[in-house]
Amino acid sequence: MRGFSYERPATPAEAAQAAMATEGAKFIAGGTNLVDLMKLQIEAPSHLIDVTGLGLDTIEDTPEGGLRIGAMVRNTDLAAHPRVRRDYALLTRALVAGASGQLRNKATTAGNLLQRTRCPYFYDTDQPCNKRVPGSGCPAVAGFSRQLGIVGTSDACIATHPSDMAIAMRALDAVVETVTATGETRAIPIADFHRLPGDTPENETDLAEGELITAVVLPAPPGGVHLYHKARDRASYAFALVSVGVIVQPDGSGRVAMGGVAPKPWRVEAAEAALPEGARAVTEAMFADARPTAQNAFKLPLAERALALLLQKART
What we know:
The protein has helices spanning 12-21, 34-39, 75-80, 82-87, 89-97, 101-106, 109-113, 120-123, 165-171, 190-193, 279-286, 299-315, and strands at residues 5-7, 25-28, 47-50, 59-61, 67-70, 175-179, 185-189, 212-218, 225-231, 242-248, 254-259. By secondary structure, the chain is of the alpha+beta class. Among the domains are: 59-114 and 160-218, Uridine Diphospho-n-acetylenolpyruvylglucosamine Reductase, domain 3, CATH 3.30.465.10; 228-315, 2-Layer Sandwich (Enolase-like, domain 1), CATH 3.30.390. The chain has a five-stranded antiparallel β-sheet with strand order 4-5-8-6-7. A three-stranded parallel β-sheet has the order 1-3-2, with helices on one face. It has a three-stranded antiparallel β-sheet with strand order 9-10-11, sandwiched between helices. Helix 5 packs antiparallel against helix 9 and helix 11 crosses helix 12.
């Protein structure tokens, strides 16, 4: 790990200003992903800005009936919050499915949204990777791709986004609140927050340089039955091959978001109209533009079966 300087700003705006003022600066909170990347020399920040003391660790009701979740709220605390468990159970189920208990005690809401991919070529610094070194190539396209994306990918990158929490946030229509170095605030719908790779897979989110996430806002509860299923290679502490989050209403309508299949939480609102027809109709629409490899084509039937399982559970 290379040397770096360190500071603890007093306000979110000061943190954003500090990030703009120092080239190569990075925010750090739980550090559950960033520190690992620093040890591997994939990330080498010149300056760390500790944002854990900014007071962004509360969960509050909004006047609209929703919930504002501070960016530094720990995953464990968020999963156990009474209103999340009662009104946004999909979020609790997704959080508990992610990582280990020790990691959930450290990981934060904002950090979870900003997790880097677990593509093996991204983590192997002896291999080219367009996401790690733009323009260097993507050996995953013709290489080991079992864990990687089948939809929303490009010739430059087929990595997937690893977060379970973000799948629930996408189904719940969350909004990401931020502050910039000039003190301006933004509200970014989560549908627009993560970017598809295209020709620039190194640009993973809509955040501008120095922009700091301050909170994630959930709209008023959508009601319905909330379920989450994560298919993975072992029972715990593994990233999803395919994960599915659903909210099913009594009339059979609802919402569907999937993980482990794309570079961002994958939701196709138009496909949800087919929910009363069953899982096959929904997944055919969700994956109409899929480009699986020979190694990960199994994700198409796996996603359909996982969704069918949840729809069956929702009816019982």
